[in-house]
UniProtKB/TrEMBL annotation:
One Pfam family of this chain: Rv2466c-like
InterPro entries: Rv2466c-like, Thioredoxin-like_sf
SUPFAM superfamilies: Thioredoxin-like
Signal sequence region: none
Name listed for the protein in its UniProt record: DsbA family protein
Species assigned in the record: Streptomyces carpaticus
Amino acid sequence: MPEKTPADFWFDPLCPWAWLTSRWMLEVEKVRPVEVRWHVMSLSVLNEPRADELPEQYAELLQRGWAPVRVLIAAEERFGSEVLGPLYTAIGTRFHLQDKPRTMETLIEALEEVGLPAELADAGDTDAYDERLRASHKAGIDLVGQDVGTPVIAVPGADGEQIAFFGPVVTPAPKGEAAARLWDGTLLVASTPGFYEIKRTRDAKPEFD
């Protein structure tokens, strides 16, 4: 078996675009020798410096965004990083596919689905895990820079060093060989010295399946 290529993935479960990219990465694991290592970042933390400039509706969303990332960090602290992927899937399925409210009840449902104690949801109402949350967030942002959102993905570059990007942003999430080709392209640009950005304006909404 070939050695698996590590892909470090930072996500905030609030973001539908990060959700789509994460589903692509799960597909990549099926078609390429890749191991996704999940990490938490936070749009609430990211937007703190410009909190006074945000539209009211987005500011309210970010306020609700503290609880899910705190619960994820609490779960990781108690049970290890291997629980992040399944718990993210359980939370994201409810948020993005089932359109359930971003409430403690929904987080409890997700915790119970993956066999984690419901009392972990209590972490959402406390700042006890914020130091570790900020450290996890900072680890991703330090690799990619400040002018990004979620997701952040870090892959090996030409010399094996971690090269991080925002994205790829894609809808719907590619499957099969299409997923593999996008992954191959991600490694290609990461191995190109001085490569920074490809971008175009989004003209489609997130498309879930």
